[in-house]
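Lay summary. Proteins are chains of building blocks that fold into shapes, and those shapes determine what they do. In this project we predict the shape from the chain. Here is one chain we studied, written as its sequence of building blocks.
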Amino acid sequence: MALDDVMGLTNRLLTSADALAAMTARLRLIDLGEEGDPAVRAQLDRVADALESRELYDALDERERAIVIAFSRSYLRQALDLVEDPTRAPGWSYSDPVLLQAQGSASAAVAHMLARAGVGSPDARILDVGTGVAGLAIALCSTFPESTVVGLDPWEPSLAIARKNVAEAGLESRITLLDAAIQDFDDTDGFDLVWLPSFFIPESVIDRAIERIHDLLRPGGALVVGTAQGEAQSLDAAVDDLRTIRSGGSAAGTADARAWLDRAGFDAVREPDLGMDVPLGLVVGTKP
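And here is the predicted shape, written in a compact code that computers can read:
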């Protein structure tokens, strides 16, 4: 009887995973400009109709499709890695270039969120902590057209892809990539805007990292901390926290981030209302 119950639950969970894969495959077919095999395409459309989401997905533009595809590919690959190697210690140790590129491409959405939050300026000097493959750094150069970006990341497999992406985007004069962790980083010019994704930063160094950022910011500059967001007891939150902890980051929420910024001496600490349904919270603080 227990096996019957477990298999029933497993089947329901598999349906969600397969549905995500189906919707992502439909988006990839659009990007490829192909219909795919007619029989398979008919079933992909059937899944979309069952989710009542065909029009929603098909209305995405090229940039929006790329973000959704990237999120899906990254999270599905991380989920498979968890199944294949459940014993490994927490930390960002992925070397799969597809996963790394997908995760970085998904982060481009943050540039739009920062603009909606009212932080940054066209000519800002920006620090992108945990830049990965530079997906966000490249998007920031588009969102803030006269800005320059310093991207930090201690993970060389990501930086190798980042250098290629920056060169292909023609942004080598605006984006500087450095092999460094934020708590050990030094700079003499100062920054107007810093992005800190707490879900990629070990909780043991969060306070040190935020103190370092406070020193690096110019007066009036803003730190934006990205955190998990959602009902603490929900399945969504449990899954997000699992992914975050396994990747070596902090699963803290917006209340924790506000406390970090208060302790470090930031002013006007706030949570901007983005008007978007996303599993990401933003906490903004300004250096006096």
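What the prediction tells us: The longest strand covers residues 217-228.
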